Amino acid sequence: MKRITPFSYSECLEYLIKMSNLPPKKQKLCYLVIGPNGSGKSTLIANLFSIGKVATTYINADLIKYKAPEMTGVAAMLATTYQVKEYIDNGYSFCYETVFSHPSKLDLIEYAKNNGYTIITMFVYTQHPHINCARVRLRQQQGGHKVAQEKIVSRYYRCLANFTRLAQISTEVHTFDNTNLSFLI
């Protein structure tokens, strides 16, 4: 086991860009990394990639928007959904990071499961949404994107609600309480 490294925003982004450029593999593995905004999902993925535990194409709306800043958030989310569905239709493995606050995400993962995918869910959370709000503010100060506090709070509770159903359809579920920024991978 290894203690998670608290990468800066730019270090984390560097790993995620490398992951997003990996060639697709036909293994039908879906690494699903979910959690409210500011929980530490990207940091977890960057750590797993840096030690070779997850080495598959990374798909995330924030990264799509980062690479194409002219896109709206909604357009980036739709592009991400399209890319995930395309990967599922072609049998490619992928690592998908999402807040998972909308029921359509459950439908997408059920679609993957029905197409023979192994769903490995990693749920990163904190004990209270105000922790997430503070972390998003810090990320923004480091050059990351802004998310309104009321969105963070509402998404926090919707993500928790959706996780219950997701856990039932996942092949494996791993939970990471990142309240104190210190967990093992």
Please summarize the sheet with the most strands: 5 strands, parallel
Shape: globular
Count of structural domains: 1
Tally of strands:
5
Helix percent reads 40-55%
CATH class: Alpha Beta
Oligomeric state of the chains present here: single chain
The H-level CATH homologous superfamily, spelled out, is: P-loop containing nucleotide triphosphate hydrolases
> What is the strand arrangement across the widest sheet?
2-3-1-4-5
Residues in β-strands, percent: 5-15%
- Unreliable spans are none
Tell me about this structure:
The chain is α/β, with parallel strands linked by helices. It has one domain: Rossmann fold (3-Layer(aba) Sandwich). It has helices spanning 9-20, 41-50, 61-67, 73-90, 103-114, 129-141, 149-169; strands spanning 29-34, 58-59, 94-98, 118-125, 172-177. It has a 5-stranded parallel β-sheet with strand order 2-3-1-4-5, sandwiched between helices. α4 (73-90) runs parallel beside α5. The protein is globular, with a radius of gyration of 15 Å. 39% of the residues are buried.
What secondary-structure arrangement, pairings included, does this model have?
Blueprint: H1 9-20, E1 29-34, H2 41-50, E2 58-59, H3 61-67, H4 73-90, E3 94-98, H5 103-114, E4 118-125, H6 129-141, H7 149-169, E5 172-177
Parallel strand pairs: 1-3, 1-4, 2-3, 4-5
